Amino acid sequence: MVLRSAFADGQYAGDIARITLPACDADTLARAWNQVEPLCRPARDDRVAERRIIEEWARTVAVTAGRPGQGVDEELAIDTVVEALVRYPADCVLRALRNRRAAHKWRPTLSEILADVQWRTRYREALREAFVRAGVASAGSSFTTAEVPS
Predict the structure, then answer these.
(1) Using CA atoms, how far apart are residues 43 and 55, in angstroms rounded to an integer?
(2) Do the domain assignments include residue 142?
(3) Is residue 87 one of the residues assigned to a domain?
(4) Is the separation of the CB atoms in 51 and 82 below 8 Å?
(5) Torsion-angle region of residue 69: left (phi > 0), alpha (psi -120 to 50) or beta?
(6) Which of 47, 106, 113, 116 has the most CB atoms in a 10 Å sphere around its CB?
(7) Please, which residues bridge with residue 21 across strands?
(8) Is 39 within the bounds of a domain?
(9) Domain tally, the chain
(10) Which sign, positive or negative, has the C-alpha torsion 112, 45, 139, 17?
(11) Is 105 part of any domain?
(12) pLDDT > 70 fraction of the chain, expressed in percent and rounded
């Protein structure tokens, strides 16, 4: 199965405007969705994945410096960050956290982590939407537009 992607800026580095699935029978589309769906599943649906995100955030907190003048309730911060991150696929979150930890001295803010995670999940979200349009997947909530906890 070959997919065609259209990017908003006409380039391959821009935002994905739409993915078009090839014309094929319903069985083929259903089998393809069965392969893609686990990649789109949020981590909150899997306790092991959720635990891995908590552990990865704890590692990030342990090896990065808090920003000067940042008085934070660490326990509340962990709950808030994890609550926001488990709305996304675990592998995207784990890669984003590892990347931030390896590349930056300062502890990332929630908005910095979410920007990275959302960039990593954009293709999956567009792909899920294509399967929804094709009538194969159910229209559930989008993890890229999920509300961030306050």
Answers:
(1) 13
(2) no
(3) yes
(4) no
(5) left
(6) 113
(7) none
(8) yes
(9) 1
(10) positive
(11) yes
(12) 75
